[in-house]
Amino acid sequence: MFVQLHWIDMLIILVYMIGCFVIGLYTTKYIDNAGDFFLAGKSLPFWAVGFSIVVSDIGATDFIGVAGNTYVNGVSAANFDWLGSMPAMVFAAFVFVPYFWRSGVFTIPEFLGRRYNAAVQLLNASIWITVMLISLIMMLWTTADDLVRTMLGFDPYYTVWIMAVVTGIYTFSGGLSAVVMTDAVQLVVMYVSGLSLLALSLWEVGGWSSMRAAIESMGGQFSTHFTILLPNTHSEFPWSGIVFGLGVVLAIAYMSGNQAIVHRTLGARTEWDAKAGMLLGGFLKSFIPVMVALPGLCALVYLPHAIQNDPNAVPAEMYQMVDTESGPVPVLNERDRVVPTMMRLMLPPGLQGLMLAGLLAALMSSISGTLSSASTIFVTDIYNRGRQLLGFKALNEKSALYWGRGFTAFLIIASSLLAPQFDRVDGLYNFIQTVLSLFQGPTLAILLLGILWPRANRWGALTGLLLGVLFCFAMWCVPNLFPAEDPFLYIAMYSFLFALVVTVVVSLLTPPEPEEKIRGLVWSSVVQDPAAQAALNARIEA
Q1: What CATH number does residue 302 fall under?
Q2: Which one of 29, 82, 170, 442 is at 20 to 30 Å from 155 when CA atoms are compared?
Q3: Residue 461: inside a domain, yes or no?
Q4: Distance between CA 424 and CA 420 in Å, rounded?
Q5: Res 499 pLDDT > 80
Q6: 3-state secondary structure of 467
């Protein structure tokens, strides 16, 4: 049932793991203070920013989860990278990134704290720390259980700890510099392996035309597999949810308000590098849907033939027979096992090791990026800000560095210990999207109003964020409220509108923020205020 890796595959994986480890540790000599650890000393060129954004965003959960969603729902799942990435990254590059970079902040919650108050900062930071811990757990367990165990039969508990130790050590040592340097290598490995799997998948099914004809001949539930926008039925990705919930809310909130994404731009050496890095990331992301989604379509054609030729190729308990217009077809029970099964059955020696290395690259880059961002948020927005509110002195650069490394170690150990608790979650990609939808709509509302509307104040933002998150949970708990099996797209859309209205109403009913407080943080003050322009230009030149 399992693959016995060839020595070439083992060598490829070993060289890759050791290489990432050495590159990550090499950056330790450049880390002298908190600024070096959290923001790479603001020295990152645009290409490093763009590369790092892509590989940090595209993890093993995307290779496994998007392909699994495509296997079940068709090409509509690719919208998460087409409609859900490129337009939003252009928007982020020209609207949000310049403000974040010019403000000199370490985190997005810190920006919200300056624009509004400490309560908004602490609440937003606490939400992100919780979400990042859940994301780490999901990434570790997805790869260990659904990928490595399905292919090789390895015990997922040991796999989790091996990946956690390797990634945790170089992130602990080198911070954002180590993350970005290893990301540059991981991008190449990820693209080469992903495109290799795609090419071989299309070859095995006879090309695009043959694959499409075979799937369309099945009819029934497979008849919409080549429809990019599905009708508003009880499917997972109806068009209204994709266009408004994903395209307008979740995508912009993710690319503009997610610390793990924006973190790289904050470490850019100039504002131009920050914006260009985000745009480069958007260009590179345009290839991702083809690379991660199409193997899921190929699996619908390839796996039935593989099972027919060898009944023992896939254990009987892993699939069920589904009646189609072209006859009974075996369909896997768990979508997250589609890509690992394809890799196990299809790839020859050498390519198996390369593909495993590519998926490990995607995983490790996402883990390291999340670790770096989470430690930055904890030290800057929770621990240090909390100390100041209690009347203690702010942390100095050395102390902040020690606390950042300490929290990095704590987070990777905690996520490794908790990972087995997610053993029975199916559809992990959708699960993570659901978690994000529970707060990203309200967060985007207060970010947009904070930058575009001077009248937005601390009370409006705090009320909008708090009630908006509670509104998300309320909608999530009501069954059959929306025309979708997983309603996270609609939850994001309506929570954004709800938080927007609440923030505006409460802000108009309470005193405005002092003009000197919001100077340089609101669009109108930046564009129209000569003093603000002079101060920002001086900061850029410095």
Answers
A1: 1.20.1730.10
A2: 170
A3: no
A4: 9
A5: yes
A6: helix
Nearest C-alpha neighbor of 360 from the set 2, 7, 13: 13
Q: What amino acid occupies position 400?
A: A
The answer to whether residue 405 is domain-embedded is yes
> What one-letter code names the amino acid at 517?
K
Q: Residue 412, SS3?
A: helix
Structural domains counted in the chain: 1
Q: Is 520 left (phi over 0), alpha (psi -120 to 50) or beta?
A: left
Look at residue 226 and give its three-state secondary structure: coil
- Is position 251 within any domain? yes
Per-residue tokens: 22: 């050495």
Q: What pTM did the predictor assign?
A: 0.79
pLDDT tens-digit readout, 202-220: 988 888 888 888 888 888 7
Domain that residue 293 falls in: 7-423
Task: Please give the pLDDT value at position 314.
Answer: 80
Exposure pattern of 4-26 as b/e (b: 16+ CB <10 Å)? Answer: ebeeebeebbeebbeebbebbeb
Residue 158 burial by Cβ neighbours in a 10 Å radius (0-12, 13-18, 19+): exposed
d(CA 378, CA 387): 12
Q: Is residue 477 part of a domain?
A: no
- Cβ atoms of 278 and 89 within 8 Å: the answer is yes
Query: Alpha carbon of 512 to those of 96, 115, 460, 506, 532: distances in Å?
Result: 22, 12, 10, 11, 19
